[in-house]
Amino acid sequence: MTAKISLLSFFLFVFAALPAAADEYAALRETIDICAGCHGENGASKEDAFPILAGQELHYLYVQLKDYKSGLRKNKIMAPVVEKLKKEELYALAKYFSEQKWPRIGFKGDSGRIQNGERAANSGQCVACHLGSYTGNSRIPRVAGQHANYLAKTMLDMKTKARNNAASMSSLIASFSESDISDMAEFMADK
What we know:
globular; Cytochrome Bc1 Complex, Chain D, domain 2; 2 domains; mainly alpha; single chain; 59% helix
C-alpha cells in the first residue's frame, strides 16, 4: 500500500509540474511569435539572411539581446523588438531559443570554396574560441550549420566595424579578404 501511495504521489508531483513548465514562456509568447517572423518557428530559420537561434548558446543570445537593447549592436528590426523588454525577459527569451533543437539546414557548398574556407579558418585560429566542432561555448556562438549568407555578412560587418559589439572578432577578421570570408562562411555552414 505504501508503495502505491508513493508511486501515486510521484505521478501527482510530476503532472502538477507540467503546466508550470508549459507556461514558463507564456508571458513571452507574443514576442516569440514576433521573432518567428524572421527567425522561423522556434528559431529554426529557413531564410539565409536571418540567423538560426534554435539551439544557439544561451549566454551568447542573452548578450546579443542586451546589446540590441542598449544600442551597442545596431539593427533597425531588432531594436524595437527588445526595447521594452526587461533584463529578465531578455534572459528568458534567450533561454527559450537556446533550449530548442538546432535544425539541420542541409547546406552543401562548393568543395573548393569549403577547402579554402577551412584553411582560412584554421589560419585564423577560429577553433580557439568556436571550438574544433564550431559549436561554440557559452558566450561564443555556434557557427557550424549556420546560414552561409548570414555568417558572411556578419563577418564582413565585423571586418568593417559596422558591427562593433565584438572587438576581438573585428581584429581577428580584419586581415581576411572578402573572398576568404565568404569561403569561411561556406565551410562553417557545411559543418
